[in-house]
Amino acid sequence: MKKSLVALAVLAASGAAMAQSSVTLFGIVDAGVTYAKTSGGESNYGLTNSGNATSRLGFRGVEDLGGGLKAGFWLEGAIQNDSGTASGGGAAGPGFEFKRRSTVSLMGNFGEVRLGRELTSAYNVVSGYDVFGQVGIGQNFSFGNGTYGFGDPVRVGNMVSYYTPNISGFTAGVNYGFGETAGDSSAKRYVGVTAAYNNGPLSAGIGFDQQNDPTTSYEKAQSLGLGAAYNFGAFKLSGLIRQVQSTPVGGGSKAKFQSAGLGATAAVGAAGEARLAYNYYDNKEIEGKAHQLSLGYVHNLSKRTALYGTYAFLKNQKSETMSLSANGLGIDPARAGKNQNAITVGVRHAF
């Protein structure tokens, strides 16, 4: 009898603990067909992924520790579902990696302290004003642009982050990424600070960050971005501006890459959304600029499944060679002063 009572007590305690915890398996599978044409170059077409949302697989969980304190974890990795490999992998792939996010955190009335690899707050607070969500051929391509060797990190590992609670719509964040370079504690170090306001129809954010030794050619890369949006009900306007500035090793003039974007979204019936965006790019190291126009439509078949289509046109001027990009398809690089066109149609399912 005593053993039975003890067993029941253990089960009851276990059930109470489980009731205070939750673990979720989640993911997105997004696939489409893309056709791209480069003026003066080749055309290419094929199956692509992540045209509307990045294909991913992840696990996340939260445990209630009592007294308003919670612990959480988040493990998430990208997948190339057109080929069945992990993101960036070849035929065999490097093995699945949680490089999109791998964090553990403590949360409470004080906000959240997070440790691990994740998107930087300086990226999040500004890129959120890209109406194409930083995916597919229609997105603003200024973030994490390594074309010119400027650095400009999107995700950082070995990072400690603090995020404030929401106070009347105001939030802020601080990121510190350890360089972990033997003999030089400042090498590869990352620092970022952000502030945002989101209340009612108005939303705005500002982010600044700096990474030391982003490449072998530059000893420091800094970015400053601003974004804002206003929801008019029938449609929503969004805009952003950014500058990435890098200091060459040994001194000399700083390299600058400037960009801006303006976009709009509008509901179409009860299940559709139209998207329109214009993006402007200016690499101060060369003569010429680039202009990008993107048009998209998303039709929700359910809360988890959608059909989508996107068209993008990129016009380079003079020496500029900006290019469009589609995940899973090699697009012939743009020639100086030449244009690119691309179109994608696909389906996205979330679980």
Outline the fold blueprint.
Layout: H1 2-19, E1 21-38, E2 43-49, E3 56-66, E4 69-80, E5 85-86, E6 101-108, E7 111-119, H2 121-127, E8 155-163, E9 170-177, E10 190-199, E11 202-212, E12 218-231, E13 235-248, E14 255-268, E15 272-283, E16 290-300, E17 305-316, E18 339-350
Write down the overall mean pLDDT.
92
Q: Classify the secondary structure makeup into a structural class.
A: mainly beta
Segments where pLDDT lies below 50 for 5+ residues? 1-19, 89-93
> C-alpha Rg, in Å?
22 Å
Give the strand content: over 45%
Please state how the strands of the largest beta sheet are arranged side by side: 1-3-4-6-7-8-9-10-11-12-13-14-15-16-17-18
SSE sequence, one letter per element: HEEEEEEEHEEEEEEEEEEE
Distance between the termini: 46 Å
Q: Would you count the extended β strands for me? A: 18
- What is the helix fraction of residues, given as a range? under 10%
Number of helices: 2
The largest sheet is: 16 strands, antiparallel, barrel
Categorize the overall geometry.
globular
